[in-house]
Amino acid sequence: MNDIIAKLKENVIQGRITQDDEGIDETLSGPGVVELTQIALDSKLPVKKIITDGLTAGMEIVGRKFNAKEYYVPDMLASAEAVSEAMDILKPHLEASDIAGKGKFAIVTVKGDIHDIGKNIVAILIKGAGYEVDDLGIDVPTEKIVEYVRENKPAYLGLSALLTTTMLVMGDIIEALKAAGLRESVKVLIGGAAVSEEFAREIGADAYCADGFAAVRVLDSYQAA
Ligand code: B12
What we know:
Distance between the termini: 34 Å
CATH topology of the largest domain: Rossmann fold
Bound molecules: cobalamin
Shape: globular
């Protein structure tokens, strides 16, 4: 049984989404993450163990390799996509398992900005960490974001901007949330190449995150609090 979990972790690290993928080192064959996740479920392994010891443990190593510049963005993306597909398979079993949902995280690229590669990576990583993720898309007007928060009540809102012009919209969004009486209902995380810790403080965001791994750490710290 532990063998399945160990294989799952190894395949996440190798970014082998299915059995047809070669993976980074081209050393693995046989079932990939999607097939192993199904095998683990069929073997009645606890969903929590599949996620924690297989998927999350694998992604932690991917994160370390990425920070150490051993892995590049496409390597990290393959692993993140593998975890995301595994989470789709596990989702129907999540409610029945002992993992409580961690809450809803909405992510959006702000008005005027169409960069979405980083946003998509962050969305996948956060989903892989067990949060429900709503991706609102790119170039989304501030009013639409406020309306979304009012109607869907996400616990967390992630804002992405890559341009020095569009980063200013993040401050407008926070002001608009305040004006609508919604600011206290949602933690706002910001990210993207243009922004910084200092800018987050300036506009009153709850956190700046350099990447998706940092975002998962911040969200998990809110859970622990
Ligand atoms: C790819 C790219 C494009 C693509 C975007 C394709 C797409 N689907 O996203 C295209 C070609 C469309 C494009 C267009 C433009 N681009 Co462009 N683009 C880039 C480029 C090369 C890479 C961005 C990227 O994907 N990086 C990889 C991802 C993984 O990194 P990331 O986005 O930073 O995301 C990570 C973190 O920042 C963080 N993060 C990001 N968002 C969030 C959100 C949250 C909540 C959290 C927690 C974390 C987080 O986590 C991510 C994962 O690690 C950058 C250069 C650069 N080095 O950033 C320029 C860059 C951002 N672009 C730039 C410019 C100027 C433009 C254009 C204006 C060009 C033009 N004259 O038309 C247009 C603007 C279009 C628009 N209105 O948005 C400039 C911005 C300059 C500035 N300071 O304002 C840059 C910096 C290039 C440069 N050096 O001049 N671009």
